[in-house]
Write a structure and sequence with these properties.
42% of the residues lie in helices and 21% in strands. It is α/β, with parallel strands linked by helices. A 5-stranded parallel sheet has the order 2-1-3-4-5, sandwiched between helices. Strand 1, helix 1 and strand 2 form a beta-alpha-beta unit.
């Protein structure tokens, strides 16, 4: 079975736009509107091969969620791409330091996103 990309974002409009884009490129996609929901889906679904994580969410933000993922067996190996409106160089480094394998800023450059997905995940 083909792997799935998990989109984690608290804004349904962002999820909708990313889902539409990725499904058009024939990726299997699921979504979560909170880090807690995302962590549960990661535990329950062994076919998830990549996480696109919004870094600025209420309750548990993306930085904390990545940290939690890195402590969980099996889930710790799933690559996470940080997706954020924070566009300063130190923000990119903060995402990488948190455990993300790459960083995409909003608004999303779809061509760059697709290149990143192809380079970091076997989806």
């Amino acid at each position: 079975m083909e792997g799935k990309i998990l989109i984690v974002d608290d804004d349904p409009r962002n999820i909708f736009a990313l889902e539409l884009t990725l499904k058009a490129k024939r990726y299997a996609v699921i979504s979560a509107m909170s880090a807690g929901e995302a962590l549960q889906k990661l535990k329950d679904d062994e076919t998830i091969c990549l996480v696109l994580m919004d870094m600025m969410m209420p309750d548990i933000d993306g930085y904390q969620a990545i940290g939690m993922m890195k402590t969980m067996e099996r889930i710790s190996e799933i690559p996470v791409v940080a997706v954020t409106a924070q566009a300063m160089e130190q923000d990119r480094q903060k995402c990488l330091d948190a455990g993300a394998v790459d960083y995409i800023k909003k608004p999303i450059d779809v061509d760059r996103l697709l290149r990143v997905i192809e380079s970091v995940a076997a989806c």
